[in-house]
Design goal:
Blueprint: E1 3-5, H1 12-15, E2 16-19, E3 25-26, E4 30-37, E5 43-49, H2 53-74, H3 79-95, H4 98-115, E6 124-126
Parallel strand pairs: 1-6
Antiparallel strand pairs: 2-4, 3-4, 4-5
Helix pairs in contact: 2-3
Length: 127
């Protein structure tokens, strides 16, 4: 069960022969569900982004940047903090894109398993 899948904009019934709507786990951005792929019968874990979280996080970051832009304008000591906040806002966009996460998993696999020769189990993204 070490597999994740990106199922954006596809119907569950097209992709899965079974899908457990009770989450295995939940975090701030998403939750994960057990499912079975239609066709192959492979058991997978599906990461599902919380509804509306992307807009909420983007709006929160835009508001924070506006506030700190004003603070930095009034007190130049806060310019570094504004820069850090802007960088964090860019990273949040990546955090919300599960394709970036899948790419990072492949990079970790390459480094640990292929190059490092370690015997570890990692999730394997499925497109």
């Amino acid at each position: 069960m070490g597999t994740s899948i990106s199922a954006k904009r596809k119907s569950f019934s097209t992709l899965f022969s079974s899908f457990d709507f009770s989450p295995l786990a939940s975090a701030s951005v998403a939750q994960v569900h057990r499912a079975t792929l239609r066709g192959s019968g492979q058991e997978v874990v599906v990461k599902v982004q919380h509804q509306g979280i992307e807009a909420l996080m983007n709006n929160d970051m835009k508001a924070a940047v506006r506030v700190f832009r004003l603070v930095a304008f009034l007190n130049r000591d806060f310019e570094l903090l504004l820069y850090i906040l802007k960088s964090w806002a860019e990273e949040i966009e990546k955090e919300l894109d599960f394709r970036v996460e899948a790419s990072n998993l492949e990079r970790v696999r390459e480094n640990l398993v292929v190059r490092g020769g370690l015997d570890v189990i990692l999730p394997q993204p499925v497109e």
